[in-house]
Design goal:
The structure is a homotetramer of 197-residue chains. With 197 residues, chain A is mainly α. In chain A, 71% of the residues lie in helices and 0% in strands. Chain B binds a DNA duplex (21 and 21 nucleotides) through α1 and α3.
Chain lengths: 197, 197, 197, 197
DNA sequence: TATGAATGAGGCTTCATTCAT
DNA sequence: TATGAATGAAGCCTCATTCAT
């Protein structure tokens, strides 16, 4: 076989890196940073232990990269929120549903775990601060204000209302709901926090 | 000089055990089971690492004991809830405030962390199952029903309502609130989930 | 460069395991189970301490494996004894010489030490019982009986005679003879225990 | 109560020291030097762990003292052997029986274990050399010579004969005989090594 | 690039020894 | 003198990381 050219190699590199990041997301979310062994990541990714180190210089760097990319993804998705249609209630509902969506669970869990667990690389913590919930709230604040103006939402400091509301959604996102009898609270129930009547 | 008598020694032993349990509660809650090193516990308790093992046969046993005692304490406190005074709203408010109280935070965080972290002694997990949130809900269900009968609370399956409500309170309990701009959501806001109007 | 193939890896693994077992035989025989530190084994084997644990799950398992294999080897060698040539005297002499042979010393010492030392993994003790001296004696009993019938050996309970004789050989085997002035008793002298005149 | 006077105190000291030495003899003989924990000695002696250190500066010193005293005792007993009555055969028989006597077993086992186990204080090893089997043999050599002159014993280098004979008796002494089917070899059988016909 | 054997720092645990009482 | 709680060095073991192939 002829050797791969530079571009092909780069594609392979990217694929491998993505494969490792996906595997480690799964394992970190489940076992936490210290509870996750590089062997678990390798085995989840179906590669050898040593190979991780061709793509990431350490477990810590892998973790940092992962967190940072998750935050960037989240942040990027938020940018699209402006274009949301419907009433403030419907807009917040859409955001909430998106946050609670199964597909985003691991990322949220990981981010949240990271927030709580101090036994993690400092750089990850710094990233968290940078992309913290405030960004989300800043973006959504106008919707809250509009909701209050139209009388749909409770009247109180909109910053606080938004901050509290997303703290709660965030917290809920982290739970293991699979085994619970009634599953995750419905979005409608959650939104009673915001919605008058 | 004469040696300490049996009773004095027992007091010392009890004190030390308590000291170690308190220190480890703090550290386990903050760093998780695997993130917590025995050296951290020792240093938090102000003792040598070896001393831990005169009181607990292993890090795991210490953890199990801790979880079990926290659950027993929680369970014992719940037994007192029957005697709560006031309207259903006021009663649930009291329970919620108790759960969110700073003094109980570490315990809640630890229990919650344990629920999620798979990298944890099995015995602790079993204990968690035994004393799980269901107990709390079973005890409080009558209050919810009364609240619905009196028209104070939303009308829907009271089990689900209670389950969801306490899941949310539980989740909130786990967060680090110290640094957040608006702190923890107020109980009144939370209770909008339950309270009509 | 391509990685090693499966077969090559298995060869390496076998070699390492053997290397570790040989080193530990030497050290265990010399210092006893508790007197042997994993660092001594590693250093004797010329490897790092951690590597031991890729081949054996613990010091105890290494010890058990070692004992079991030595017993199996010994047992296998005994099966060949039937084919011994010569008079009963010559046959027992051959067996005795084999037992006292330098090459088998460490194994005998280890087994014997294990028999006496109570501070030893239970599984090893159980193995010892299974493969105990009785097997040897059962196999050789016919030779003793023939020796008595031909008038070569003393006439007494052949079981007891055999049992005592091999107890003595066993005991002798365990001694450090290197430094003693006259070395190990000669086989001829030992066999006076058996041989009339 | 009036304080004890100096002499009484010294008696108590001696008693305690003896108590500790007896207990440690039992435990060292059973578990070996490294397998013996100071807690085992304390518990066997019925005293607290710390007390050992008022009488012996370390586990090592206790062990050395023990070995040395055992050797001195043995040596002292040997001095009485001159006065033994009877034929050389009867005299050696008496010595052998004394060595194999149950009451002396622990001491012999300990000394023998010490001989083999390198994981022991060096001073003990030195003591062993000083009081080694040679002393015994030197004392008994005349008896062997007389036995050969009278035609009772085999004719060969009497030093070697004695050395080998007592090596064998020594080795036998160390075995655990309690569980063996036929027990320890009888003295008569052993003495066939020496006795013509 | 890919593998997995090998290393070694660091964690958990034991236990000889010290120390407050 | 006697006790047993406390210490800390050292042992067993794990696992992130390196390296030979």
């Amino acid at each position: 076989m002829s050797p791969l050219n530079k571009q092909q190699l780069e594609i392979i590199r990217d694929e491998r890196a993505t494969q490792i990041k996906q595997a480690s997301l799964k394992v970190f979310a489940r076992y936490g940073y210290s509870g996750t062994k590089t062997s678990m990541i390798a085995s989840e990714a179906g590669i050898s232990e040593g190979l991780i180190y061709r793509y990431f210089s350490s477990k810590e760097e892998l973790f940092n990269t992962l967190i940072q990319e998750l935050l960037e993804d989240a942040s990027r998705e938020l940018e699209n929120l402006h274009q949301l249609q419907g009433s403030p209630y419907e807009q917040i509902k859409a955001v909430t549903e998106n946050m609670l969506d199964e597909a985003n669970r691991n990322a949220f869990i990981l981010i949240q775990t990271t927030r709580m667990d101090e036994d993690i690389p400092q750089k990850a913590t710094e990233n968290l601060k940078k992309y913290s919930a405030d960004t989300l709230i800043d973006l959504l604040l106008p919707i809250f204000v509009k909701g209050q103006e139209s009388g749909e939402f409770y009247e109180e400091d909109p910053c606080r209302l938004a901050s509290w509301y997303f703290s709660i959604v965030n917290s809920i996102c982290m739970q293991e709901w699979g085994k619970e009898e009634y599953g995750m609270p419905s979005v409608e129930v959650l939104m009673r926090i915001l919605k008058k009547n």
